[in-house]
Amino acid sequence: xxxxxxxxxxxxxxxxxxxxxxxxxxxxxxxxxxxxxxxxxxxxxxxxxxxxxxxxxxxxxxxxxxxxxxxxxxxxxxxxxxxxxxxxxxxxxxxxxxxxxxxxxxxxxxxxxxxxxxxxxxxxxxxxxxxxxxxxxxxxxxxxxxxxxxxxxxxxxxxxxxxxxxxxxxxxxxxxxxxxxxxxxxxxxxxxxxxxxxxxxxxxxxxxxxxxxxxxxxxxxxxxxxxxxxxxxxxxxxxxxxxxxxxxxxxxxxxxxxxxxxxxxxxxxxxxxxxxxxxxxx
Length: 282
Description:
By secondary structure, the chain is an alpha/beta fold. It folds into 2 domains: 3-88, GMP Synthetase, Chain A, domain 3 (2-Layer Sandwich), CATH 3.30.300; 113-281, Rossmann fold, CATH 3.40.50.150. The protein is 28% helix and 32% strand. The protein has 9 helices and 13 strands. It has helices spanning 5-13, 19-22, 48-58, 114-123, 141-147, 160-172, 187-190, 213-219, 240-252, and strands spanning 30-32, 35-38, 64-73, 78-86, 90-95, 98-103, 129-132, 152-157, 180-184, 200-203, 225-234, 257-269, 272-281. A 7-stranded mixed β-sheet has the order 9-8-7-10-11-13-12. It has a 4-stranded mixed β-sheet with strand order 1-2-3-4. Strands 5-6 form a two-stranded antiparallel sheet. Helix 1 crosses helix 3.
């Protein structure tokens, strides 16, 4: 059991670590399929291979162990990991029957967003056209394609590595090509080339994608549509701080908007929430 992970490490390692080092052992871990990710204290970094090999033996279905070496970095929000035990870092996470295959060394997978990945399914009405501006490996696209009444999804992704796994995941989940069209490139360029107009646009990326809002209004259905706009809010802040981003652009296009719902996705940092604004546009 995860709650006894540290105790199991201590028992397994025995006299290979001293009493002082024991207190620095990790008390838990993150599991992405068969890949385990540890936060390892600098005080025991010299024992990383030893701890990694012990973890392989302790954690069920574990084939690879990595440690975090830094924060998420770069335009493509790449994890900073080091493999300390086991084999490859390609793995598959299964949520509600949806398979997400990716390389844990190259792709960030936020397990805390699981409810958000499912939330859209009940919101989407029959035969909607969906534009997923930041599709990644298919975080939203896959579940919408499998379990919602959407007619067609245009899934845009600029990161070539993520796009590779997006295409693989569409095949892995048996998504028909007439349901999802994966498009490699910048959504602010590629979305303008699509003849269909969007009934719903997913803008699921951090930080808030302000620079993509004008494109969103250009490709949204001219009668009515929904924009899902993600961002960060301090616990004592009002949604207006993010809503105003959208309001300013709406005025440029003479569109009326209404905040229909504020969804708290997860805690992002102390006193900071990752949220999504569901905005109706008319």
